[in-house]
Write a structure and sequence with these properties.
Layout: E1 3-4, H1 7-11, E2 17-18, E3 23-27, E4 35-40, E5 44-46, E6 51-56, E7 66-77, E8 88-101, H2 105-111, E9 118-121, E10 136-138, E11 153-157, E12 167-179, H3 186-190, H4 203-206, E13 243-255, E14 261-262, E15 264-269, E16 275-277, E17 280-282, E18 289-291, E19 301-308, E20 313-321, E21 326-332, E22 338-342, E23 344-346, E24 359-362, E25 373-374, E26 379-386, E27 391-394, E28 397-403
Parallel strand pairs: 2-6, 11-14
Antiparallel strand pairs: 1-9, 3-4, 4-13, 5-13, 6-12, 7-11, 7-13, 8-9, 8-10, 8-12, 15-28, 16-17, 18-27, 19-26, 20-25, 20-28, 21-22, 21-26, 23-24
Pfam families: SURNod19
Protein name: Stress up-regulated Nod 19
Keywords: Signal
Length: about 400
């Protein structure tokens, strides 16, 4: 397991650490001994046009030596009603693992100081340092994308032999939501177009990008223009109420035993500009990209990356985190074989989970166990295809779970 820098939190402009009590409903195990619990995160306040970017530290999570089978999230109001995307757009939620020094816990909780006593642990993906560190995380497509892992596979957590002495395994949410009620350009707001935000006049003089350099003025939109408490422009005279929302998330798990097969989780990024230092690949993921204006709308926009896999395994699950406008995403093996294609589902109605014109789900690949093997060192090709229309903050993240073996 690789440790990530504290910059993981800085990347997504996480400003505030909150510690309110969460709530859960624990359900009985089913016949396969799968347990489940539904939790509510601490709440956050939104208002028309407001951007909310938060870290929710020490979220409620099943404890003990377990194997997680699924992790599903949606945004709800104080009465538990699902919030449609055209009111509050869920740009992303990421669940990140960290370990905390037990003796430092009271100090951290009181001071919100993460400089001491906490170590972040990222997934097995290839992106450099602090980029895309999460174990679970999607966005607007959350409600319609399955996270279920087939038996006997699970993500092993809480193994006491793998947790440093004196530390405790914990989880946080990194979230971005955009309230688009009353906005002049709802689509532009969800894409974090800089010109639509009330950014300070010196924004380009003080804001640095992923590479640590000042953002160029050619940066027209994306994560860095959607900062906490920034306001997206509203229609003249629009007034609307604020409200408190939260994440409702359901986790299914089993108690770990000899019947479970562990999985490793990888996030691959179609913006990964891989280069080498001798025999060592260096990954330069950008996390997002812009689709420029053009006159060839009938030709899809394609973004490709060739990504070497230091460690391979059997493919058990595959899907993608994308944005509205995606046509499809495909992961290819080194010999050109298709490993998995994830296709979008677009809404056709008004109800939450079926919002017209929004990306509301991505298909998932469940290969027959043992049928697809990625070899150690194999170079995979990730191809993200969008409609060829101007778009900022486009993403092409592919999620795969790999098993080193198919059975115990």
């Amino acid at each position: 397991m690789r440790t990530i820098s504290r910059g993981a939190i800085i990347l997504f402009s996480i400003m505030m650490l909150l510690f309110d009590t969460t709530h859960s409903i624990v359900l009985e195990p089913d016949e396969n001994h799968i347990k489940s619990a539904t939790f509510l995160s601490e709440n956050f306040e939104v208002g028309p046009g407001k951007i909310v970017v938060k870290t929710l530290l020490d979220i409620d999570f099943p404890r003990g030596h377990i194997g997680v089978k699924s992790f599903d999230v949606e945004v709800v109001d104080e009465d538990g009603n699902s919030i449609p995307l055209y009111e509050t757009y869920l740009h992303h939620w990421f669940a990140v693992k960290y370990i905390e020094n037990i003796t430092m816990s009271p100090y951290i909780k009181q001071s919100h100081d993460l400089r001491n006593g906490i170590e972040f642990e990222r997934n097995d993906g290839a992106c450099q340092g602090f980029l895309l560190p999460h174990y679970w995380g999607l966005g607007a497509e959350s409600r319609g994308t399955s996270s279920n892992l087939p038996d006997p596979f699970a993500v092993e957590l809480g193994n006491p032999t793998k947790i440093k002495h004196g530390f405790k395994e914990k989880w946080l949410f990194s979230i971005m939501v955009i309230d688009t009620r009353g906005t002049q350009d709802r689509k532009g707001c969800t894409e974090c177009r800089c010109k639509l935000m009330n950014l300070p006049n010196d924004f380009y003089n003080v804001t640095t990008g992923i590479n640590g350099q000042l953002l160029p003025r050619s940066y027209k939109g994306g994560l860095f223009c959607c900062q906490d408490n920034v306001q997206c422009k509203l229609k003249n005279g629009f007034r609307g109420p604020t409200r408190k929302l939260s994440l409702r998330y359901k986790i299914k798990w089993v108690d770990w035993d000899e019947n479970q097969v562990p999985l490793k989780f990888y996030i691959l990024d179609s913006t990964d500009r891989v280069r080498s230092n001798g025999s060592t690949p260096i990954h330069d993921c950008q996390a997002e990209y812009t689709i420029p204006r053009n006159h060839y709308n009938d030709i899809p926009h394609i973004k490709k990356a060739n990504i070497p896999m230091t460690k391979g395994g059997y493919l058990v699950y595959g899907t993608a985190h994308m944005h509205t406008g995606v046509v499809n995403v495909t992961l290819y093996g080194q010999d050109g074989r298709v490993l998995c294609t994830s296709n979008p589902k677009y809404g056709t109605g008004k109800e939450a989970g079926n919002e017209k014109g929004y990306l509301v789900g991505m298909s998932v690949c469940y290969p027959k166990p043992g049928s697809i093997k990625i070899e150690d060192g194999e170079i995979l090709t990730l191809e993200s295809v969008y409609e060829n229309k101007f778009r900022t903050g486009a993403m092409g993240h592919f999620y795969i779970y790999l098993a080193e073996q198919i059975s115990i």
